[in-house]
Amino acid sequence: MDHVMVTARLSSGTRRRAVRWRCVSPSCGPARCSAPTTATPPVAWESTRQVIPFQAGGTMDCPDLKEAGKMADNNTTSVTWYNKCKRPPFVGGNRQLRGVSLRVHVMMGPYEGLYFCTVSYQRRGRPLNFTRSINLSAVNSPRLPKIPTILNPAKEQIFTVKQGE
């Protein structure tokens, strides 16, 4: 396996720091990179955080896509999405592509985690690509009750039982 060293600048507010990433799996979608320290995320750019409530829907858009679209030649922009090294269609059918966005129809716990979007476009006849990551989290839905309620038996419903039956 080839190991490629990538130097990246991460912006944290006004502070910039250089991080050296070691790409360990270029065959799995966007190259999986790991820093020699415990630094995350595994791409050379800070992750965008997105929250979708459980049992609700939401749409993920690739960060910096609009800027790439402005620079691209004649609408040559395309987006490829990845989650756990897989491309759509994802298992379960609750996540699907809608144009260049990724739509989550019904948010569930297994859908949490890092999603990668790779934007490809041409500028002045040259192919260009960049990859961004979105850390998707699920939260309690404001529509769902938080206190459990007993549905059966009803409050006034009485069951007569005999011992041993």
TrEMBL record:
Stored InterPro entries: Ig-like_fold (IPR013783), IL-1_rcpt_fam (IPR015621)
Record's keyword terms, sorted: Disulfide bond, Glycoprotein, Immunoglobulin domain
Entry protein name: Ig-like domain-containing protein
Source organism of the structure: Champsocephalus esox
Organism taxonomic ancestry: Eukaryota, Metazoa, Chordata, Craniata, Vertebrata
